[in-house]
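REQUEST ID: PR-0412
SUBMITTED BY: lab tech R.K.
PRIORITY: routine
TASK: structure prediction, single protein chain
INPUT:
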Amino acid sequence: MAAPPTAVASRGKRRFIIKKSEASTARIATADGSEWRFFSNSEEGGRVIAQLLSIMGADARRPPAGIGQAPSRVRKVLVSVYPRQAAWRGFPDERGGRIQCRLGPFPTKELMGFQVLRLSRLIAHACEKRGGLLLHGALAEWQGHGVILAGPGGVGKSTASGRLPPPWRTLSDDTTLIVKDPAGAYWAHPWPTWSRVRQGELEASWDAQRAVRLGLIGMLSQGEPDCMTAMSYLRAASELVDVSGQASHYLFLDMDREARKRINRMRFDNARAVARKIPI
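STATUS: complete
OUTPUT:
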């Protein structure tokens, strides 16, 4: 990882200066044309960044699989770790392509997992602001197309995705990030199973930079007999809103009411747009 940016005092607070000669190799890219470059002013921040890259299988030497274009938008995320746990009343603001992210200490594996979860959710939230959606659903690939198996906890997403025969390929078993590219097409990234990470399973890894063109979203339910039925637009949008909320409820606990309202309105609009274009 590149050397961290210099931190200097300004009006009683720390601000960050990224030297022009420094180039961060701590990068994550998504198929909507975004790239995140992570910096820190401390060893602790560097550890969180390194853990994020490991869990998300990030490789700065390649773009997302299936996407050959250079990023159209670069964000610099400045990570600070403070002695006391920092509550997020909303997501950190982006100013001039920079986001200052304040994290708390991580004396245990579980707290390290929580800090990494925050950074990953920051990425997902930025993608949602561009029309994406984070879903509680497994992602599988079939002949280059992405199929999401979504639904509430316990419905069988992991079981169903784990039993798919070749040529199917399971990419994630719990969470998927949908992104919208500049041309209006939807792509799906396999996203980490954050319930495992929050429990301290920091050795697990997902190829989160891999992107597949989204072709279908299936809403799972248990019952007899086995069948597949197309949903109406209104029901599909409603189901998408539900599974989107389930994917990030951990971070909603500390957020204020207005922040939650803004995020929920954005999810609702994005879910409607996805439901109009993708079969569900």
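NOTES: The first helix runs from residue 43 to 55.
REVIEWED BY: pending
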